[in-house]
Amino acid sequence: MNGIIDIKDLCFRYSQENEKLDLSHIDLHVNEGEWLAIIGHNGSGKSTLAKAIDGLIEPEAGEVFIDGEKLTDKSLWNIRKKIGMVFQNPDNQFVGADVEGDVAFGLENQGIEREEMHARVKKALEVVDMQNFAKHEPVRLSGGQKQRVAIAGVLALRPKIVIFDESTSMLDPEGRLQIISLIRQMNQIEGFTVISITHDIDEASLADRVIVIDDGQIIDDSLPEKLFQKGEQLIDIGLDVPYPQRLKLELKKRGIQIPAEYMDEESMVNWLCRSILKN
Amino acid sequence: MDKMLLGRYINGDSLIHRMDPRGKLFLSFYFIVIVFLCNNWETYVLMTAMVMLFVKLSDISLGFFIKGVRPLIWLILFTVLLQIFFSSGGHVYWHWGPFTVTDSGMTNGVFVFCRFVLIIFMSTLLTLTTTPIEISDGLELLLKPLTKIKVPVYEIALMLSIALRFVPTLMDETTKIMNAQRARGVNFGEGNLIKQIKSVIPLLIPLFVSSFNRAEDLATAMEARGYHGGEGRTKYRKQEWKRNDTIAVILFVVLTIALVVLRK
Question: Number of A:B CB contacts under 8 A?
Answer without folding.
Answer: 94
